[in-house]
Amino acid sequence: MDRYPAIADLQRRARWRIPHFAWEYLDSGTGAEQARDRNIEALSQITFVPRLLRGELHPSTEVELFGQTYAAPIGIAPVGLAGLIWPGGDVAFATTAAAKQIPYVMSTVATDRPEVTGPAANGMGWFQLYPPRDPELRDDLMDRAKASGFTTLVVTADVPTASRRERQRKAKVRVPPKIGPMLIARAAVRPQWSVETLRTGLPRFKTLESYLDEATLAKTAGFVGANLGGTLSWDYLAKVRERWDGPLVVKGLLNPDDAERAVDTGADAVVVSNHGGRQLDGAVASVEALPSVVERVGHQIPVLFDSGVRSGLDVARALALGASFVFCGRAFMYGLGALGADGPGHAYEILREDLVNVMHQSGCERIDQLPERLA
Question: What is the rounded distance in angstroms from the CA atom of residue 208 to the CA atom of residue 312?
Fold first, then answer.
């Protein structure tokens, strides 16, 4: 699709194609959105010194992680409410992961069920756990994920409580949506989104509906607020480790001391992330925290990365600084909003083709040569 050769092109089309409230949910950070912008700016400051005259190159992007070979070190990060951006979003992510042989991390607050998305991902699915307060709920979610074919559990640490997200408040982003003249007007000017949503139904937290006697949107949203998050501790993580018999990843660490303790508690990998700048506006840029975490624990476990990635060049930058794998949230969501079910696959091709081009331009045939090209 030559009309959309960059993630920025998908971003612009998504803004034009989805309603204002959906766009504000997707694109916003928190506070003055300095952390969101800092992620992007910090990545842009990382440069390479190419090595040239190296003859014909055949860059390979295949990587192995947890015994699984992936086509590229690029994954779909967990983002809730994918169905708000485009109906069927979670299944679109899962089928993209299966087709492209990359991991897809399903959110606890996805708009479909693991029993649907797990089989669609065909072995490429990871499950993200927002830690429930109730141990029985926690264990049941893990059991459902395992039974649905999810291979890896990702425990999110960087949401100790909900952030304020002022831009979303002004846009009146809420679940359930409050049906009124403003919402109807904003949906009406996005007819394709509206038609698809009417056909499939309003977005719902389907994973969690099975725990309610009456699964209305209001009750499910209240259940999320009352039962998820706010209790994650090292003891809690240890209990998760005891229960989950597959690879365990802790997402959202910026401090190397926390990363080291995660390893001691049994984590098989950590994700350096500030939640895309959506939690603490004063947080350090994720890529600025990456080298110290790699230095501390990178010799023991893979260090994964997300936040601020908008290109294959950004993927290369994180890999050059020691990340073993890079996850993208907004980039894939922009694709979904821009092109519907075909969008995530197109976003992946943009990222991978750009990564391969960076490797050519800098004189690398292998991912592990990228650190040698850092300026």
Answer: 35
Sign of CA dihedral 165, 343, 251, 243: positive
110 vs 91: CA distance, rounded Å: 10
Which residue from 306, 307, 304, 310 is spatially nearest to 334, judged by alpha carbons?
Answer: 310
Alpha-carbon distance of 290 to 218, in angstroms, equals 39
Closest to 172 measured CA to CA, from 36, 33, 19, 276 = 19
Of the listed 275, 299, 346, 360, which one is catalytic?
275
Express each pLDDT in 226-240 by its tens digit. Answer: 888 778 999 999 999
In the chain the first and final C-alpha atoms are separated, in Å, by: 33
Catalytic residue status for 275: yes
Place of tokens 């086509």: 71
Res 6 pLDDT > 60: yes
Residues 107-120 as b/e (b if ≥16 CB within 10 A, e otherwise) read bbbbbbbbebbbeb
